[in-house]
């Protein structure tokens, strides 16, 4: 394939997204994963000391949450990995990368069960190396970029704000700290200010409030690296539960 497969960052939201159906749910259902033959997914819900490849034969899912309605634990989705994809990603990352059988966590199946309900696109999950700086994650994304020329898309799944103690379960408008953080982040992505993005914890307004722990933002840096740091196209913008930003982006 001569063109580059896209890179996406998707805000996957609360685990019960598929049951409550906020506006981002309809967006994901209408989103098409076109122009790719396979997909690498990086979820905010899998960290390991070094990068690992998770493969699944389909159907078995990880319900890595608790306290939600029972129908959420009955959801099935036939997403599956292919040997060809696993071998190619292993070759790209070099010797020593570990592969393991691991059901897809909800950072994978929650959005992808809406985007590709039949599970037609082969995929694998790649863990996020814990403790790596934004700059190191960015460089890791750059290592994946070559695969885009082979029709392998890269999807990072997280959330651009993620403060669970500040959610408004009865709904409501976002607080100023949340919208100010998003305005800053989007402006820096559009202007290509790589150094500011990598130092967001110091420079961004309300960074610690938006991300008391930054596990849900870290996939973004891998997406930016894989995309070459160019400006994204914003595909969707909405808020859920008050302060949970559901923005999603694409780089071509």
UniProtKB/TrEMBL annotation:
Name of the molecule in the record: Extradiol ring-cleavage dioxygenase, class III enzyme subunit B
Which cofactors are required for activity? Zn(2+)
- Origin organism is Aeromonas diversa CDC 2478-85
- Annotated Extradiol ring-cleavage dioxygenase class III enzyme subunit B domain ranges read 36-229
Any Pfam family from its record, for instance, is LigB
Similarity comment: family membership: Belongs to the DODA-type extradiol aromatic ring-opening dioxygenase family.
Molecular function, one GO term: oxidoreductase activity, acting on single donors with incorporation of molecular oxygen, incorporation of two atoms of oxygen
CDD domains per the UniProt record, alphabetical: 45_DOPA_Dioxygenase
- Identify the keywords attached in UniProt to this record, alphabetized: Dioxygenase, Metal-binding, Oxidoreductase, Zinc
Q: Where do the coiled-coil regions begin and end?
A: none
Q: Record's InterPro entries?
A: Extradiol_dOase_DODA, Xdiol_dOase_suB
């Amino acid at each position: 394939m001569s063109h580059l497969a896209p890179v996406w960052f998707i805000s996957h939201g609360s685990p019960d997204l598929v049951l409550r159906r906020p506006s981002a749910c309809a967006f994901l259902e209408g989103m098409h994963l076109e122009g790719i033959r396979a997909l690498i997914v990086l979820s905010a819900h899998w960290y390991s000391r070094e990068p690992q490849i998770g493969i699944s034969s389909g159907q078995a899912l990880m319900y890595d949450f608790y306290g939600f309605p029972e129908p959420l634990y009955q959801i099935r989705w036939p997403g599956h990995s292919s040997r060809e994809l696993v071998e190619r990603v292993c070759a790209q990352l070099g010797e020593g990368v570990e592969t393991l059988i691991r059901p897809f966590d909800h950072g994978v199946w929650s959005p992808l069960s809406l985007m590709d309900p039949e599970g037609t696109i082969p995929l694998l999950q790649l863990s996020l190396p814990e403790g790596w700086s934004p700059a190191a994650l960015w460089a890791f994304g750059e290592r994946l970029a070559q695969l885009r020329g082979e029709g392998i898309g890269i999807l990072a799944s997280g959330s651009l704000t993620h403060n669970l103690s500040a959610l408004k379960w009865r709904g409501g408008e976002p607080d100023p700290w949340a919208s100010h953080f998003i305005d800053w982040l989007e402006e820096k992505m559009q202007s290509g200010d790589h150094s500011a993005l990598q130092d967001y914890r110091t420079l961004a307004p309300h960074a610690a409030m938006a991300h008391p722990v930054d596990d849900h933002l870290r996939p973004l840096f891998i997406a930016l690296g894989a995309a070459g740091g160019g400006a994204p196209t914003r595909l969707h913008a909405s808020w859920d539960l008050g302060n949970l930003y559901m923005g999603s982006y694409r780089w071509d």
